[in-house]
Write a structure and sequence with these properties.
With about 160 residues, the chain is of the alpha/beta class. Helices cover about 30% and strands about 20% of the residues. A 6-stranded mixed β-sheet has the order 2-1-3-4-6-5, sandwiched between helices. It is globular, with a radius of gyration of 17 Å.
Length: about 160
Amino acid sequence: MELSDEQPAAPVTPPAATRPPGPASPEPACTPPENPKRILLVDDDPAVTRSLKLNLECTLRYDVRTENDASCALPAARQFHPDLILLDVVMPGMDGCEVAARIHMDQELKDTPIVFLTALATNKNTGGHATVAGSTVYLAKPVILDELIRCIEAYARK
């Protein structure tokens, strides 16, 4: 399976209640930063990858590539050179721990930070915050967007 060919999400117009008062006019085009952080998102659930990709790219700070097949994560990472990998723990065929082990054995990718996403922990248990166990960082699913962004900013390269 190849990396997703999805086009970047179009800028989202805020609801009327959050726009400043004034005459209705088209929203100005937002310019993404020159060097957005590159995030590889690996999860077997296309609805999860699509939602997180859209939400992260709407911040205009991230270039997000998605992969829904764990066995394709390593080639996708080699091609994309991510600053951080968001990796689901429980996936069919190859789980996130095995994917992470393969990434850490790869000379080109061994220093790439990985944050695990898991439904095995809950936001109630973690307080919605990233949990660090040894050198492993976990975020509970469903992911709270603000916490995901804090986690990316804390652990991504650049």
